[in-house]
Design goal:
alpha/beta; Adenoviral Proteinase, Chain; 5-stranded mixed β-sheet; 36% helix; 2 domains; single chain
């Protein structure tokens, strides 16, 4: 009985008023971290040593932002120091902006002419909407063009052609070619424009089909070679052979002997969806002189590496950025 009485004392008393004990907890800071976006590529000798790795904006951009802000605000920016101007905007717009791009989208700075064009020149392209549900989605011709156009602008001696269907020499209506830049390729014109490196991406499908597989070609007039790359390591298509012969003959007229090579028989890609990334990687690495042609013949580049490079070549987009016009 003693045990029973003892237990009854521990029972919940319905008549007694209970209050929840308060705990002194540190409030959670819900402030979002400022996100550093990936900048459009720049040639090594064009980097601003002070602003490199600090901002995607140039000194000129920041001075323009300052002028626009001062013309529309009572709170003036007096400094001419680029980093101090940048810090002003970061602090002033911290409640509504969590990256640099937001400054051009949600503030008085949106008054800049062609702000969307400026965004595409300053920042790396933003990932397509399809990547949300399928991170390994096949790259479209638009995705490829966005990347390579930035390298064209950053490397004045480089020219990108494509992405072209494999039947680029075929004649369409009024006897025009499917891809005029390849059909009527003139190496002398590029030499006169001081173009020494040419990158081309092809699709193995013809122009009247949806697309099958991306392959690429790199022409280097400085190092005197042409290299054909296929992530599957398959034999060079006959259309590419015809084009290479055309380039070789034109080079000979300019007293340039080009060595032709490829990675036939050496497979890099074993999973679906990454051929476009392989083609981009091949061109960019040769352009930046990070890799040699022999590297692509002897060192396998894994599919997982190409998946990683999607986050290097592209910025992760939010819903608002999907509204940017291509």
């Amino acid at each position: 009985m003693k045990n029973k009485n003892k237990l009854s004392k521990n029972k919940f008393d319905k008549k007694k008023k209970y209050t929840k004990k308060k705990h002194n907890r540190t409030p959670v800071n819900k402030t979002r971290m400022f996100k550093k976006l990936k900048c459009a590529p720049q040639e090594k000798n064009s980097y601003d040593s002070e602003l490199k790795d600090f901002t995607c904006y140039s000194r000129t951009n920041l001075q323009t932002f300052k002028e626009i802000w001062n013309s529309a605000s009572d709170e003036k920016i007096h400094t001419n120091n680029s980093k101090e101007i940048w810090q002003f905007f970061k602090k002033k717009l911290s409640k509504e902006c969590y990256d640099e791009l937001c400054w051009l989208k949600k503030t008085k700075l949106s008054a800049i002419n062609n702000s969307e064009l400026l965004i595409k020149e300053i920042f790396k392209p933003f990932s397509p909407k399809a990547w949300i549900t399928n991170p390994s989605a096949w790259l479209s011709s638009v995705d490829i063009t966005k990347i390579m156009n930035q390298y064209e602008k950053s490397y004045p001696h480089f020219k990108f052609i494509g992405p072209s269907p494999i039947d680029f020499d075929a004649k369409e209506v009024f006897s025009t070619c499917v891809w005029e830049q390849l059909c009527n390729f003139n190496l002398k014109d590029y030499i006169q424009k001081n173009i020494t490196k040419i990158g081309i991406i092809f699709n193995t499908d013809t122009h009247d089909k949806p697309g099958k597989h991306w392959i690429s070609l790199f022409i280097d007039l400085d190092k005197k070679f042409i290299f054909y790359f296929d992530s599957n390591g398959t034999k060079m298509p006959k259309q590419i052979k015809v084009f290479i012969n055309r380039v070789e003959q034109q080079a000979q007229y300019e007293n340039i002997i080009l060595k032709v090579d490829d990675n036939e028989g050496f497979t890099h890609q074993f999973n679906d969806g990454q051929c476009g990334m392989y083609s981009l990687y091949f061109l960019i690495e040769l352009l930046k002189e990070n890799k040699s042609c022999n590297y692509f013949k002897t060192n396998r580049i894994k599919d997982s590496t190409m998946k990683k490079y999607r986050t290097i070549y592209f910025n992760q987009a939010n819903k608002e950025l999907y509204n940017l016009k291509d």
